Amino acid sequence: MKNKTIVGVLSALIVTSSIACGSSGEEAESPSSAAQTTKEPPAAALSIPEGAVQVINKDVGGSGKYEFDPKKLTFEVGQEVTFALTAETEFHTFTVNELGIDQEMDAGETKIFNFTFSKAGVYKLFCIPHESLGMVGEIVVE
Ligand SMILES: [Cu+2]
């Protein structure tokens, strides 16, 4: 698995989105090393869309007590949901195998993604690294 280095929370907020999906393959030649990159205000980058369903991926300061908050979510068939998933201080995933959902969050990161629930059912939600530690939940679509 990848190295889950804990980056400083503030710098992670700024940098994560740009490196999250990047493969560290080609870093050979960058002629002009970004000497004068303009700094962006950190808070503005994380605007959570109105009406988004917020789920906090809790680890209570890395204490080892892992849980989704809330751990049970109920939606209607056909409902399009915008999720705002926040990882508290550790890497987490928001994974629902049966629905093909597998979102990853680095420490301190908030991930926004959309999903439309097209089929009724009760689906198991879990965090890949912490499933065995009880970080599980349930998505009900009715
Ligand atoms: Cu987790």
Question: Summarize this, please?
Answer:
The chain has a domain at 48-141: Cupredoxins -  blue copper proteins (Immunoglobulin-like), CATH 2.60.40.420.
Would you kindly provide a written description of the structure presented here, covering whatever features stand out?
The protein has 142 residues and is mainly beta. Helix content is 8%, strand content 35%. It contains 1 helix and 9 strands; from the N terminus they run αβββββββββ. The chain has one helix at residues 9-19, and strands at residues 53-58, 67-69, 72-75, 80-87, 92-96, 101-105, 110-116, 121-126, 136-141. β5 and β6 form a beta hairpin. Residues 57, 66, 92, 127, 129-130, 135 line the site of copper (II) ion.
Q: Which assembly state applies to the chains in this document?
A: single chain
Number of DSSP helical runs: 1
CATH superfamily annotation of one domain: Cupredoxins -  blue copper proteins
Q: Choose one word for the global shape.
A: globular
Helical amount: under 10%
Beta-strand fraction estimate: 35-45%
Q: Give the neighbour order of strands across the main sheet.
A: 2-1-4-7
Low-confidence stretches: 1-28
What is the second-level CATH architecture of one domain?
Answer: Sandwich
Q: Which ligands occur here?
A: copper (II) ion
Q: Biggest sheet: strands, sense, closure? A: 4 strands, mixed
Q: What is the highest CATH level, the class of one domain?
A: Mainly Beta
| CATH topology-level name of one domain | Immunoglobulin-like
Strand and helix order: HEEEEEEEEE
- Separation of termini? 36 Å
**Count of DSSP E strands?**
9
How confident is the prediction overall: mean pLDDT? 79
